[in-house]
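Quick one - first record:
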Amino acid sequence: MQSRRKFIQQAALATGALLTSNSLFAELQQDNAAGKLTILHTNDVHSRIEPFPMDGGRNQGLGGVAARSELIKKIRSQEKNVLLLDAGDIFQGTPYFNLYKGEPEMKAMAAMGYDAATMGNHDFDAGLENFATQLNHGKFPVLLCNYDMTGTPMEGKYEPYKIFKKGKLKIGITGVGIELNGLVPESLYGNSKYLDPVQNANTIAYKLKKEKGCDMVICLSHLGYKYKENKVSDIQLAKESEHIDLILGGHTHTFLDAPETYKNKLGSDVLINQVGWAGIMLGRLDFEFGKSSKKNLAKAHSVVVGKKTNE
């Protein structure tokens, strides 16, 4: 991991970086490929509807849904199988949220065609009834397997997982959220119960991989990349997982140079990626699948969003 300034400078100069791995994501011959998949992802956008103002600040001209939408449209015109995902903290951070409580954010994500998202702690900031109401504008599923929201306005409004079919591929996606107690006022999360994210993610991943026959299992995580203290993180989840292939993270606003690889309990590779905050970056991961469902991460891009993209 490097400083965000250096990261953005490098990403602006080169939007792609080749990443290969020697085990699970071994390189496959093109004529054996059963399918290709492009995963686009964001996290911690924090109500950044417009780009940062051109005021001389370090983020000037970056972010904004218009620039992100154009990038997504361009990629979809070039690639057949695309998934667009978000790892939470959609809300909070600009006057748009203060005034409209999340409606513009959800409508923007719906217009961009997000396939799925998970909840971050700031998505509770106007209460569960508000989030449930704003979901009517979102038109995409919220995936969570470690919150029990029975008896709250979110009951029946979220799913533990969802399977997406992209060409010949079956992609299973689940989501995990961070411990709310001490982070979010109890008045905002109400009767929501936090469940062990590692245990529940493993249970869902087993179902997706072994029972549902998914070619790939993705976990949208708002746990945070890593911590100095003893706190559940994406790295801990990766190491203690069994059937998760990719963790797309949020919460810690981490700019990763490229996806990082960890070994799970079975000795297989798990990738972790996170792309900072405020919609400054759009993560892109291009996978190739062989007939035996082996995966090769052919390319990993972190594309700068905004006026600096084409500099």
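second record:
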Amino acid sequence: MAAVIPETPDSNRFTPHRNDDPEAARRVRKLIDSPSYVQADQDAEFLQRPEMCGLRLQLDYWKAEALLKAHAVDHTIVVYGSTRITGQAAQQAVDDRGDERLCDASSTAARVASNRSYYAIARALGEIVGRARATATLPKLTVVTGGGPGIMEAANRGAFESGDASVGLNITLPHVQYPNPYITPELCLRFHYFAIRKLHLLERAMAAVFFPGGFGTCDELFEVLTLLQTGKIRPLPVVLVGEAFWRKAVNFDFLLQEGLVSAADLTLFSFAESAAQTWETVNRWYESARYASALATPSSQSSPVAC
């Protein structure tokens, strides 16, 4: 007679397969406690193996997709920007060599402090979007950010203060980055893969707004512009907040003069200086003839991102 296998590993209901073998129950217990006996979809160690990367990518995508659909997050405005621009007084920046470059550190701290106005603009934008209602050309939008501090916090905070929901798509980093406290709890997600996070940032996007930022923000900006340039996503307004900053950070005119981009490429984005101007730019884009080209996207492409 075969042994009766318990329904759960914690069960003590063992029936030895032979009455003359008092060790049978112990051996069955050992089998059930073996790592090999853990069901594959419940085996965390197995799921972390390198060859399971494809499956983890799918899980990263589908959990967020299911939650966003369940909460009817259909149309979004994505706000990008630095984690280092906060609404509080900047602490003095000191590099790895301590105070050897205290003068330079003080200058950097002063620049960070001067950029605090962008936090206020992002916060105001979040509130404007949160209070805005659908129009004939633009549906109701939900604020989406990367879920972290700085500019992301500011946009989520504005939406929170308006009483509207907002989304935060945080990511696991070598250093801990906690989600900011203004994200709707049911819409606070965490990703392992930057690629999947970026996909979800854009998948429902009706507009992308870029505040000053560092490598991460610039990476996201150039990815969005490349996707638009190559037609991989449907047209949408891209607004760069702070023209002086962006023209200094990226010499767009030089790229044009060198023949590396076209004049048409430089129409893929526009500049704004305030929350009201940013929102007006988004609305004006959808009221213009450009909206017709957005609607001309093939019906098989239901989202901005062409997978």
